[in-house]
């Protein structure tokens, strides 16, 4: 038999022989129940830790607003108008913080559930996907906290300080705005992950993205104009800069995916 016809030398055959989990339907249900319970326990513990750290965490959340008020020589305090406003905020923030702290454990439980049924190369791909998505989301949140929020808050406070109306910042409304900005930027920073998935399924290619670059820039400008809380062009450009960088990073990700797919198809064609 020719070497190319030997099943042991076939890459496809090697993939089939990679170890994967073989479980019955009932065993899958038992495993799913176990992972869900572990995930819920982790979320519960995370919420308790989050409530314990809530007061310190709120200090970091309100810091950009306080610094913006001090820079404009205004009263550097935030207020609540509901009798239980601060208590509700304290609990809500602790719960959000707890979920965020427990998320790595929850993702690990998801990984333990799906990993036994995957091939070795698929397990590596899923692990890389989870790590990349988490890091990109954290980068978006960090960009929002350290770059966007100070810029936006400084603009709105200085703008209002020039008139006869002075700001009386409600802590709950400020927290809602901050949450929207940070989570929104975290989601936007997932663009390379979305393009990776679309490229794997052949929906998006690097050629398509570069050909439609002008339309992408127009869409980015529209999104930046809608999402940016302030009307000034400088803040909008600051918001657009990482989106443009993420777009070109997504082009590179798509190129790498398409190149790897073509190399695999070429190798399989030569093997047959």
Please render the helix and strand layout as text:
Blueprint: H1 11-16, H2 25-71, H3 85-114, H4 120-161, H5 171-188, H6 191-200, H7 206-211, H8 213-227, H9 233-271
Helix pairs in contact: 2-3, 2-4, 4-5, 6-9, 8-9
Q: What does this entry show, briefly?
A:
By secondary structure, the chain is mostly helical.
Describe the structure.
The protein contains nine helices and no strands. With 272 residues, the chain is mostly helical. It has two domains: 23-189, no CATH class; 191-272, no CATH class. α4 (120-161) packs across α5 (171-188).
How many beta strands in the DSSP annotation? 0
Strand content: under 5%
Helix-residue proportion: over 70%
Low-confidence region ranges = 1-17
Structural class: mainly alpha
Radius of gyration: 25 Å
Tell me the count of domains: 2
The global form is: flat
Number of helices: 9
Series of H and E elements: HHHHHHHHH
Largest sheet: none
Mean pLDDT: 83
Beginning-to-end CA distance, first to last residue: 13 Å
């Amino acid at each position: 038999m020719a070497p190319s016809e030997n099943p042991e030398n076939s890459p496809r055959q090697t993939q089939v022989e990679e170890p994967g989990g073989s479980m019955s339907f009932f065993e899958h249900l038992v495993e799913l129940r176990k992972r869900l319970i572990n995930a819920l326990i982790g979320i519960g513990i995370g919420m308790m830790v989050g409530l314990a750290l809530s007061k310190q965490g709120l200090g970091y959340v309100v810091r950009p607003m306080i610094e913006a008020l001090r820079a404009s020589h205004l009263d550097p305090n935030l207020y609540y108008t509901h009798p239980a406003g601060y208590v509700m905020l304290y609990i809500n923030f602790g719960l959000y913080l707890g979920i965020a702290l427990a998320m790595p454990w929850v993702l690990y439980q998801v990984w333990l559930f799906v990993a036994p049924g995957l091939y070795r190369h698929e397990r590596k791909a899923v692990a890389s996907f989870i790590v990349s998505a988490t890091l990109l989301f954290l980068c978006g949140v960090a960009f929002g906290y350290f770059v966007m929020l100070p810029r936006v808050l400084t603009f709105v406070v200085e703008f209002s300080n020039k008139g006869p109306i002075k700001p009386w910042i409600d802590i709950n409304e400020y927290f809602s705005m901050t949450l929207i900005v940070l989570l929104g930027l975290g989601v936007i920073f997932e663009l390379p992950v979305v393009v990776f998935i679309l490229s794997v399924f052949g929906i998006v290619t690097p050629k398509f993205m570069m050909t439609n670059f002008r339309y992408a820039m127009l869409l980015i400008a529209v999104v930046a104009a809608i999402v940016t809380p302030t009307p000034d062009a400088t803040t909008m450009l600051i918001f657009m800069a990482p989106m443009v960088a993420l777009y070109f990073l997504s082009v590179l990700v798509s190129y790498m995916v398409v190149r790897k797919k073509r190399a695999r198809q070429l190798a399989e064609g030569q093997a047959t």
